[in-house]
Amino acid sequence: MSGLARLMLRGRTGQVAALAVTVFFSATVVGAFAVLLETGTRGQVSTGEYRNAPLLIAARQSTPVSGDVDLATPGRAVLPAAVVADLHRALPGSRIVTDRIVPAAFQAAGSDSEPADVHPWAAFALGDRTLSAGHAPHRPDEMVLPRELARSYGLNIGSRARLGFGDEAVEYTVVGTTTADDRGVDAPDVYLDDAQIAAHGNPDHRVAAIGVWPSTKPDARALDRLVVRDGARLWQRDHRGPLEVVSQGRAKADLVSSAAALGAIALIVAVFTVMALTSLQVRQRSRELAMLRVVGATPRQVKRLLRAEIHVVAGSMALLGGVAGPALGVVLVGAIRSWGVVPRTLHPVLGPLPVVLAALAAFAAAEVAARVALRRVVRGSPLPHLDDGDDAARAPRVVRRTIIGLAVLALGAVMALAPLYTSNVDVATGLPGLSGLVMALSIGPLSPAVVRIAGWIVRRPATRDPAAYLALQSIRHRAARVGGALSPIVLGVALGTVQLAGSATTGAVASAQHDAGSRADLTVSSDTTGVGERTVRLVRDAAGVGAVTPYVSTDVIVHAPAGTGNGPQTLAALGIAGDEPGRYADLEPTDSRPIHLRHGEVALGVLGAAELGAQVGDSVTVVLPDGQAITRRVRALYRRGLGFGEVLLPIGDLQSATATGAPSGLAVTVAASEQKSAVVRRLNDRLTNHPGIRVVGLSKADAGRAPSGGDRFGLLILLVLFGYIAIAVTNSLVTATLARRSELALLAAVGTTPRQLRRVWRWDAAFLAVTACLVGTAFALPGLISMTYALSNGDRSAPALDPVAYGAIVAFVIVLVLVATALPARTILRAQRQRASRRGSDDA
């Protein structure tokens, strides 16, 4: 059977090539996402910052989640200083070194500032680093820098540089450089005299890590009990990377979730496109397969023959794609590293899993496609298939296909209406996003009906042009076969529209809520150091400044109330003085009463509360940025959480949990008699010597915002998926066009000129492209409208879709369809002219 399959493959090189290319790129895309998934799961960035200590004790940098991936702590989890005293009592005579990290803004003369982590010099002994030049800092005005940092700014031993801790910068002399390789991590490590650390940052003196050189072999069980009692853990020497570069925990978690979700979509798309192409090719071979059955082949033998053909092609291409997929994954990891989505030193992890998964996924997609496509060729009598007609027009199959298509369409509609029947935000916003993809799957079974409806709409304009009329009649005659070419185009338009509009809609809703609720004119903020007390006074005393409201903006992990069954969620949090939320913003409370938080209370946005299943009066546990857990009672709910944060706490709860112990920023109102631009200029002049602190007018905060690394990562993934769909579309159109040789030959035989034939296939391609764009957009809109309605709490329903981006999708689809149809059609015409020329020569 395999030998016969190979012989039949040789006679269908065009169809074989189309299937081979589709399966190859299916494996490639799945393999690329598998590399992203494995890199996020197993990859690790380590700088050697804590490698030297025999025993290293520090807080856990994640919150366990039952039955799911652990949630990374929003900031650096730290330990109370009391742990050090416990260790001294438990391990007398041992050498114990603690590290306390203070965020700062480093600035050399004539340059912009950049974040830096400031450590006490004693903590230098925790790592495997050495001094490359100079000596340790002994005076209050001395510091030691990484060699690469000093070199990048042209600093030498004796040079001067500044550090900002939220107030006016402090100038230090560079007295040494280290061998630390801090490129592409959270921030370079700067070392100061030990006494300087106590003078800056959070006065709580919580410690980041504790290194122990035991004098004798410690009792492992006793040490474990001590560590667990203090909420810490022992970090093994080869697994300290997440403690050295804490941002990788959150970045890797985002990478895993994105790769898993998009990989699942890629797998669905792969199965769907391979199925559409396989079904199209099998449908075009109806006459050939019917002839085999007429001459005595059993249905089982026909199925075995076709499956053998597909296995030969899919098996080899799946293996090749399994090798190419990880290579593409390496390129994707390199791109997202360069954009700062993950640490720049996080290298891709290459193992056997991506290769095996990619090959199995592509082969399984081909197997599923073959089984579905072959069911139609072995049922019933083979005689109706001998006329090479489109059997999809027969009533029994039309009814069955229509029922299947309507069922899939109804499933997509139910998913799109998720906000109407569920309060779970993940479901209410996730299902509508996938509904367009599900609706696109219905286009195959419903293609005859879609073609008839579209043909009925354009029937009158089409009768005015003979070429358009011929193209329309041809499409109506080939309605079921057109579905095989139409399906991936619709899928591409729907997927592209949803991906482009989804993130844009979230940003638009958040921006609208912020603009509607904000009561400040500008902010003075620092993402690195916070705003110190002296800076607060400086801003308050500036001419033209009205009210000044300190706030803390960060992320927290919130555990759902007991008994709800919901898991913990990472949510954006806002800290404001308990009696002043209304001075900062109108959060639109659900009960229309002003929010006044007392100690032990929290307010939640309605979306965050829905995710947690929390109501007013429930108790929730909040994990703060430094890993502390506090229990708070829900006092109120508000609607504008997407614009300001889904968790509102008294500022004291959040400020004490920051590494700086200072507010993130100041919300400033401008006096009525002053112009905002003049106040901004005055504040900028006053804050010239405050590195890391910036003044931003709220109305301009997001205008012209440059695309972030995450935005570009999403766009890159969309391009990869859309590129794969474009390849599938091209293969389907080429296959469908090459199968029309007899039709084009008949038109040529009755006197149609080549120019007229070209007009026919152009109308054919235009009809397909426009129909696909309209249907794909129609499938995407219900889910987008529903998602917008859910995110905005019913305030708006129109999704945000960039007309330029959407126009680019439509233009790309139209050009792709025209080119993919024109090239094979020209090949057919050229072959016909050559045959006619040879016949003329023979007659002569």
TrEMBL record:
Key words, A-Z: Cell membrane, Membrane, Transmembrane, Transmembrane helix
Domain ABC3 transporter permease C-terminal: from-to ranges: 262-381, 717-831
Principal location class: membrane
Organism, as annotated: Actinocatenispora comari
Annotated signal peptide: none
Transmembrane segments: 255-277, 310-335, 355-374, 403-422, 434-458, 479-501, 713-734, 765-785, 805-829
Keyword Membrane: yes
GO biological process: lipoprotein localization to outer membrane
Protein name, UniProt field: ABC transporter permease
One Pfam family linked to the record: FtsX
Similarity section: Belongs to the ABC-4 integral membrane protein family. LolC/E subfamily.
Compartments where located: Cell membrane
Keyword tRNA processing attached: no
Stored PANTHER family: LIPOPROTEIN-RELEASING SYSTEM TRANSMEMBRANE PROTEIN LOLE
Recorded topology in the membrane: Multi-pass membrane protein
Any single GO CC term annotated in Swiss-Prot or TrEMBL for this entry: plasma membrane protein complex
